[in-house]
């Protein structure tokens, strides 16, 4: 898990991540895996399970959609910050981001049987914020578009009561 063409996913390199969507250390999570696909674009494939359904059982739940997009974007922002710092993910002082702003445009329902591809692009980087755009593609059609602002948070944010 977490390996593609000899490269570890962003998530496989992040230590201490218990997030439901992207945390490798959460045994009940979705365990998404993100990889660079270009200079500022990262991709993630996700295979929904039947229990990820919406009320109509043939469609993927909108909250699961939001979760995988959110986590893919946040991990892309983290990977980008490590790259800009000239370090491998997880090397040296930890770099963490949290979601500051998140908007979704649901264009069409997503089949629960679809293989999903997420494409997140870094569109702007500031001192504390990274702006990203993401597409969720199912059955070769864009089903969801998203914009996310990732906010860099201090390492103590991860501590209880942080």
What brief labels describe this structure?
162 residues; globular; two-stranded antiparallel ribbon; 35% strand; alpha+beta; six-stranded antiparallel beta sheet
Write up this protein.
The protein is built from 2 helices and 8 strands. The protein starts with a strand and ends in a 9-residue tail after the last strand. The model has no long low-confidence stretch (mean pLDDT 93). By secondary structure, it is an alpha+beta fold. It has a 6-stranded antiparallel beta sheet with strand order 3-4-6-7-8-5, with helices on one face.
Assign the structural class, choosing from mainly alpha, mainly beta, alpha/beta, alpha+beta, or little secondary structure.
alpha+beta
Q: Which stretches of 5+ consecutive residues score pLDDT under 50?
A: none
Backbone CA Rg: 15 Å
Strand content: 35-45%
State the strand order across the main sheet: 3-4-6-7-8-5
> What oligomeric state best describes the polypeptide chains here?
single chain
Helix content: 10-25%
Element string (H = helix, E = strand): EEHEEHEEEE
Secondary structure tally, helices:
2
Distance between the termini: 30 Å
> How confident overall, as mean pLDDT?
93
* Strand count: 8
Shape: globular
User: Mind summarizing the main beta sheet?
Assistant: 6 strands, antiparallel
């Amino acid at each position: 898990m977490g390996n593609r063409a000899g490269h570890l996913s962003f998530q496989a390199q992040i230590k201490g991540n218990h997030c439901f969507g992207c945390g490798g250390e959460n045994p009940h999570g979705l365990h998404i895996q993100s990889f660079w696909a270009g200079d500022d674009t990262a991709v993630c494939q996700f295979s929904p399970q039947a229990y990820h359904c919406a009320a109509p059982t043939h469609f993927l739940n909108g909250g699961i959609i939001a979760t995988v997009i959110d986590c893919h974007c946040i991990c892309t922002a983290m990977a980008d910050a490590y790259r800009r710092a000239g370090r491998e993910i997880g090397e040296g002082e930890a770099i963490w981001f949290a979601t500051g702003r998140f908007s979704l445009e649901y264009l069409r329902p997503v089949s629960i049987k679809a293989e999903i591809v997420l494409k997140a692009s870094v569109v702007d980087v500031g001192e504390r914020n990274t702006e990203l755009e993401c597409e969720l593609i199912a059955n070769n059609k864009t089903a969801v578009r998203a914009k996310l602002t990732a906010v860099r948070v201090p390492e103590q944010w991860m501590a209880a009561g942080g």
